[in-house]
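Thread amino acids onto this structure.
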């Protein structure tokens, strides 16, 4: 996912991240009148280690020391929040793999097989996982990752290995192709080739798999007939667009317009479903640094903006940004992550009454 580039390159500071104090109470009252239309969070991205260490100092060490039981506990915790889908960001990073493979050395984690741990737990609670097929090269150079033949070979080999080793899990719902493109206003042709190549291999390994991508830079969208034709040519079941609020690419209220246009394009193409990849964070140092949980008032505004135009709202991300108060597997800043957890769960439980 090129969000890791986007965070560093296009972060514009914290202006506009939070709803001004004087406006919060009126906004929440407004939301109460149409709460039934606001979709809850249905899923989240998931990782064993973050791909930009300068953004994850508050949780990477925690994740690295998770035992198999703690990975399972985290899956149970996420299930309690009502999440149905998880998207594994990567099966490799920094030249190392997160599972046993001949393709690269193994990443040193306390848990010997974190992929087995999370899929086993997901089997038990009914969570559906989209499993990544990368990163076997420099994740900060996505164009090369999609074009390089040697990396393509490793990616294809890894998909075969992962399918063989973990494909028996009922929670293995599909694949996530994480080298994300951006809209300007259309997809690059090589990105369409990359997606279709990955999809062809995925369908060969598991004909029933459901596959997902998450493009960014929606503010450049031009959802015209040219874009519709691109969607028609892409063999992908779900397109989860990044809303861009966390990285300050878009401001509150703007994603609604972009998602509406994209929704109409998807309706015309009648090929893939439209989901959201909504950002839960802001930057600790304004334009860079660690990712910090955003205020729930901002997040509720984001949910309200995009709910009418998407089937599901997924987020980036639960890990490191939210924690149950009594969590057996803490990852991230305790006060801030627990605060957001309690705020969201307070809202979520009201919707179920």
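Threaded sequence (353 positions):
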């Amino acid at each position: 996912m090129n969000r890791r580039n986007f965070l560093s390159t296009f972060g514009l500071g914290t202006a506009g991240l939070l709803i001004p104090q004087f406006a919060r109470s009126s906004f929440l009252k407004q939301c109460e009148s149409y709460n039934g239309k606001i979709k809850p969070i249905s899923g989240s991205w998931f990782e064993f280690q973050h791909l930009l260490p300068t953004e994850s100092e508050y949780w990477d060490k925690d994740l690295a020391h998770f035992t198999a039981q703690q990975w399972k506990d985290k899956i149970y915790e996420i299930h309690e929040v009502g999440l149905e889908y998880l998207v594994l960001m990567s099966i490799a990073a920094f030249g190392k793999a997160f599972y046993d493979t001949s393709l690269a050395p193994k990443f040193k984690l306390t848990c010997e097989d974190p992929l087995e741990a999370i899929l086993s737990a997901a089997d038990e609670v009914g969570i559906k996982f989209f499993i990544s097929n990368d990163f076997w090269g420099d994740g900060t150079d996505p164009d090369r990752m999609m074009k390089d033949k040697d990396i393509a070979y490793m990616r294809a080999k890894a998909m075969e290995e992962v399918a063989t080793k973990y494909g028996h899990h009922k929670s293995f719902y599909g694949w996530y192709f994480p080298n994300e493109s951006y809209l300007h206003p259309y997809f690059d042709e090589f990105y369409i080739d990359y997606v279709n190549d990955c999809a062809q291999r995925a369908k060969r390994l598991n004909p029933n798999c459901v596959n997902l991508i998450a493009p960014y830079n929606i503010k450049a969208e031009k959802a015209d007939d040219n874009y519709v034709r691109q969607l028609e040519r892409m063999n992908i079941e779900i397109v989860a667009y990044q809303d861009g609020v966390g990285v300050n690419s878009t401001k509150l209220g703007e994603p609604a317009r972009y998602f509406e246009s994209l929704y109409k394009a998807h309706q015309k193409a009648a090929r893939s479903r439209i989901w959201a990849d909504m950002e839960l964070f802001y930057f600790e140092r304004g334009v860079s640094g660690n990712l910090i949980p955003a205020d729930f008032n901002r997040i509720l505004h984001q949910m309200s903006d995009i709910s009418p135009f998407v089937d599901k709202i997924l987020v980036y991300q639960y890990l490191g940004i939210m924690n149950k108060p009594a969590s057996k597997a803490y990852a991230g800043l305790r006060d801030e992550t627990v605060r957001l957890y309690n705020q969201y769960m307070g809202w979520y439980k009201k919707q179920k009454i």
